[in-house]
Amino acid sequence: xxxxxxxxxxxxxxxxxxxxxxxxxxxxxxxxxxxxxxxxxxxxxxxxxxxxxxxxxxxxxxxxxxxxxxxxxxxxxxxxxxxxxxxxxxxxxxxxxxxxxxxxxxxxxxxxxxxxxxxxxxxxxxxxxxxxxxxxxxxxxxxxxxxxxxxxxxxxxxxxxxxxxxxxxxxxxxxxxxxxxxx
Length: 183
Prior knowledge:
By secondary structure, this protein is an all-alpha fold. It has one domain: Four Helix Bundle (Hemerythrin (Met), subunit A) (Up-down Bundle), CATH 1.20.120. It is 81% helix and 0% strand. Helix 1 (4-14) runs antiparallel to helix 3, helix 4 (60-84) runs antiparallel to helix 5 and helix 5 (91-114) packs parallel to helix 8. The longest helix is centred in the last third of the chain and has 31 residues, at 152-182. The chain is globular, with a radius of gyration of 17 Å.
């Protein structure tokens, strides 16, 4: 349980309350803090898997916690950027699409794991995750970027929509693959 990769994964979960709190801080300072916390979480997401494989310390608990940590982080940020109003109007649809896919794919993976079926992550799904993470990083830095005249919010919204479109496609792909095993 207490390997470095697992500690890095757990750190992503433990940083979520700090991220949420940063939205209630005076801006743009809160936005800067949120961006730094999110960027650090992104680095730990890369390094926990890399270190686990490189050191031969891949564990069941790590495989269980890693996607949960990712989904909790994504969910918390999407809820907060909508709550605070940085993502509003029709842009909320993109956030809802992403949240629904995260929940659907998690449930599907859990069901398929119960019948010992693995659904591998596709390259397109990895690109979706990359675009989504850059979108979320831009959105949490909306006020901080504005302080420097950078269009972080606008970039975040465009990328959020691209991530939502990729989310629909990859979510359909996973569902199609999973339905074969449900029938």
